[in-house]
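Structure in, sequence out. Go:
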């Protein structure tokens, strides 16, 4: 069970991670949380809270020299689809049973041999 300080630190971290799914560097995130926390900022507690958010799937690790994080995709559907709209995907291609197989082509007649001059005549 996380301590109350851990919950406050986690919510501070989440307040600086963009909600649109863009990544934020760990250095920038640490500086932002440190500026908000003031003198009570502990880098080890920040790191532990960030790692815990990644471990529980709230954040996803990203790339970068110092690393980065971004919010995980929401498991709930978007609001306009969650309210019960009758939305259905329909295939634009008919089922495979109604598709005709291509007819095989007749083989072409062989080409006549080409006349090539002798190597002596090419000089």
């Amino acid at each position: 069970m996380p301590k109350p300080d851990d919950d406050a630190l986690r919510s501070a971290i989440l307040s600086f991670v963009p909600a649109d799914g863009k990544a934020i560097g760990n250095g920038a995130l640490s500086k932002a949380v440190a500026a908000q926390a003031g003198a009570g900022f502990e880098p080890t507690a920040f790191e532990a809270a960030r790692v815990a958010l990644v471990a529980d799937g709230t954040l996803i690790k990203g790339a970068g020299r110092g690393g980065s994080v971004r919010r995980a995709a929401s498991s709930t559907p978007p609001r306009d689809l969650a309210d019960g709209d009758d939305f259905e995907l329909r295939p634009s291609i008919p089922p495979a049973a109604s598709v005709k197989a291509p007819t095989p082509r007749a083989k072409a007649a062989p080409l006549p041999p080409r006349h090539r001059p002798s190597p002596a005549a090419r000089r």
